[in-house]
Write a structure and sequence with these properties.
Radius of gyration: 24 Å
Largest sheet: 8 strands, mixed
GO molecular function: 6-phosphofructokinase activity; AMP binding; ATP binding; fructose-6-phosphate binding; identical protein binding; metal ion binding; monosaccharide binding
Keywords: Allosteric enzyme, ATP-binding, Cytoplasm, Glycolysis, Kinase, Magnesium, Metal-binding, Nucleotide-binding, Transferase
Bound molecules: 6-O-phosphono-beta-D-fructofuranose
Number of strands: 12
EC number: 2.7.1.11
Oligomer: single chain
Distance between the termini: 26 Å
Helix content: 25-40%
Pathway: Carbohydrate degradation; glycolysis; D-glyceraldehyde 3-phosphate and glycerone phosphate from D-glucose: step 3/4
Enzyme class: transferase
Length: about 425
């Protein structure tokens, strides 16, 4: 089997560990392994240039006795992605322009290519929003590019929009093969050989917003970042006896806000799933904070999920909260929007363990996949790695979003869909 792995959607800490796990497990199970740069965009662009050959063996320095077939000197060693840190000092001739990956988006990789990826943040293979993959022509080009490289299995690590894209791609695959045959792009042998595409999803998102899995890759690290930030805010807040309104990410999901609030002892938390139930969130919040101040608290922390709203679905923004704290309680208040600090940086231990276990399982799923098995997404439930039918997870996620009353559900969904090529 030839497995390609790509990352899509907003990046999250642990994506590199996921790619590493898929590559290493794939090799151990006798597969050829490939990475696709820049998410679905790379699939659509494919390779317009022949691979560079050089003298490095991807097995170099690897203590494991790999199959002879993989001792191949044509693989790209220590991939060089733009400014990525993948070529380390003394390892390979970085000055040689022929090592550039320009014109190559689908790249065969070996064991050592992913060495050292476990603890690195972001995604070395890149992620992009692809409008072209959202079109039938784009997906047809993606199918052509995969078949050209002989790839028959795909691992997608991304959010629900990206995974929906993967499932759609798989379901359309036989039509793409037919069209490619009709256009003369492929022959009968390939039609026979590439009858169906095996796909599996890994959920990479800091939002922890996917149904049927307890945790998504990157959410624990983002949570750590928020907690650290609030710890830092706490000291200055206490010094000045100030209130801070901290806005956190999560899109339409309040998990980050809720759990960060619990782990930092926040005074009040706004999440989309459970808006304040009374007629006035302002009164409810002020009563709670006043009570805390009355028992001697010198500082106030209010966490606002970016998707928070009141019970009538009107958005609640950090600045609205600040205004109320200042005007109704007379508190000297500041707003801190944590932004992308939450998404960046090295993965915490759990964001190395989770993608590793799930990447291993993803390869096992592909090895047993048939035309009739559903597309799976790898989850974790009660500390056990699970396989869940991908579309069931996506549909349940959407139902949950509807149930919490996303104000503009269709718009929210199209935002998610735009992840197709992120
Ligand atoms: O889905 C991950 C996420 O970080 C959300 O929490 C946030 O709303 C969004 O992505 C931000 O996206 P961008 O990086 O495109 O600004």
């Amino acid at each position: 089997m030839k497995i390609a792995v790509l990352t899509s959607g907003g990046d999250s800490a642990g994506m590199n560990a996921a790619v590493r796990a898929v590559v290493k497990m794939g090799i151990l199970r006798g597969c050829e392994t490939w990475v696709v740069r820049e998410g679905y965009e790379g699939l659509v662009k494919g390779n317009t240039k022949a691979p560079d050959t050089h003298n490095y063996s991807t097995t170099q320095g690897n203590p494991i006795n790999l199959p002879e077939s993989l001792k191949d000197d044509t693989l790209v060693r220590n991939l060089r992605f733009g400014d990525g840190p993948l070529l380390r000092d003394g390892e390979g001739d970085t000055s040689d322009a022929s090592h550039s990956l320009k014109g190559r988006y689908i790249i065969r990789v070996g064991w050592d290519d992913v060495r050292g990826w476990m603890g690195e943040g972001g995604t070395f293979i890149g992620t992009a929003r692809s409008t072209t993959f959202r079109t039938t022509e784009g997906r047809l080009a993606a199918a052509r590019n995969l078949i050209k490289e002989g790839i028959d299995a795909l691992v997608v690590c991304g959010g629900d929009g990206s995974l929906t894209g993967a499932d759609k791609f798989r379901s359309e695959w036989p039509d793409h093969v037919k069209t490619l045959r009709a256009n003369g792009d492929i022959g009968d042998e390939e039609v026979e050989k590439y009858g169906h595409l095996k796909i599996v999803g890994l959920v990479g998102s800091i939002d922890n917003d996917m149904a049927l899995t307890d945790m998504t890759i990157g959410a624990p690290t983002a949570l750590h970042r928020i907690c650290e930030a609030i710890d830092n805010i706490n000291t200055t807040a206490a010094s000045h006896s100030r209130a801070f309104v901290v806005e956190v990410m999560g899109r339409h999901c309040g998990w980050l806000a809720l759990v960060a609030g619990i782990s930092s002892g926040a005074d009040f938390i706004f999440i989309p799933e459970r808006p304040p139930s009374g007629d006035s969130w302002e009164e409810e919040m002020c009563a709670t904070i006043k009570a805390h101040r009355n028992v001697g608290k010198r500082k106030t922390i209010v966490i606002v999920a970016e998707g928070a709203h009141d019970k009538n679905l009107n958005p609640i923004r950090a600045d609205d909260v600040k205004k109320v704290l200042a005007e109704n309680l007379g508190l000297d208040t500041r707003v801190t929007t944590l932004g992308h600090v939450q998404r960046g940086g090295r993965p915490c231990a759990w964001d190395r363990i989770l993608p590793t276990l799930q990447g291993v399982e993803a390869v096992e799923v592909l090895l047993t996949a048939t035309q009739d098995t559903p597309s799976y997404v790898i989850g974790i439930s009660e500390n056990k790695v699970t396989r869940v039918p991908l579309m069931e997870a996506v549909l349940k996620t959407q139902e949950a979003a509807k149930a919490i009353g996303e104000k503009d559900f269709e718009k929210a969904m199209s935002l998610r869909d735009s992840e197709f090529g992120e």
